[in-house]
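Second attempt. The first submission of Malate dehydrogenase, mitochondrial had a stray character pasted in from the spreadsheet, which I only caught after the job came back as garbage. Lesson logged: always re-copy from the clean sequence file. Corrected sequence (340 aa) follows.
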Amino acid sequence: MASRRTLSLLNNLKKDAKFFSTSSKDLAKVAVMGASGGIGQPLSLLLKQSPLVTDLSLYDIVHTVGVAADLSHMDTQSKVRGFVGPDQLKSSLEGAEIVVIPAGVPRKPGMTRDDLFNTNASIVRDLARACAEVCPKALIGIISNPVNSTVPIASEVFAEAGAYDPNRIFGVTSLDVVRSNAFIAELKGLDPQKVNCPVIGGHAGITILPVISQCTPSVSFEPDQLKALTERIQDAGTEVVKAKAGAGSATLSMAYAGARFTFSLIRALNGEQGIIECAYVRSDVTEAKYFSTPLLLGPNGIEKNLGLGKLTDFEQSLVAPAVEELKKNIKKGEEFVKKH
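This time the job returned cleanly.
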């Protein structure tokens, strides 16, 4: 199933002839930070396959040269280079228009995303500092967990460097959308590629709020089934961690979702109209300083925040607890930068 969905994603991109253009203005240079990891390798594979990517820069603290050499044997048009270690970090970011950050340690059974905080917070801080110096105008997609805290960390680092543009820093929550689409399609017997369910809030537990009432095509569930479906979407990451029994967390599905978001950024960067994705960004939609909502993307990042839309009573009841949890997550990220 995963391979068919991946091929479908790429085939959908290829349907439009402009994606085969050899003009550099229609392509993008993408840097993947943490390219040797469980998410980074399959993400890099998907990006290397895409005709949207002209230059793929891979960075990690180990093995990146080997990953780049392996990918370079694929007969696709994008050039790929590997960079290893702190001494080559800045070089890996030169000219990057989009930077995707899956770097960090994965979850293991019994761990929450928040348990990853101390290790991944430092990683994101250091990568954000390098981005702020080398490619301050790049669009930044942060996958490293806990996203609810790492996005505020990156934002504070950019602000300290005098390079902060809230329209250019995203927490990649596309996996929650992808999961919602898959689970809804499974329950309703639909083609998952034709289902689109927005997910708002954050990217952990009760902060993940699938807005099933706004799903396309329109679907409905009995209250008990709706509650169970919502909880499954919220706990889907833990479902994978348990199923892998200590062998890792959601890597392949996250790579797929990360590629989807990156392709959307490239298409918007190239001027395509009507590109909408949900992402966790700086926001005034709720009392939380950061909140995921559907976003209209453009060449400079967020063109318009489309907000919450009309919520049902059930969905609205989930917002307040999510906001309170997000406030704690955001504060933790901001305080980390101040202390370090």
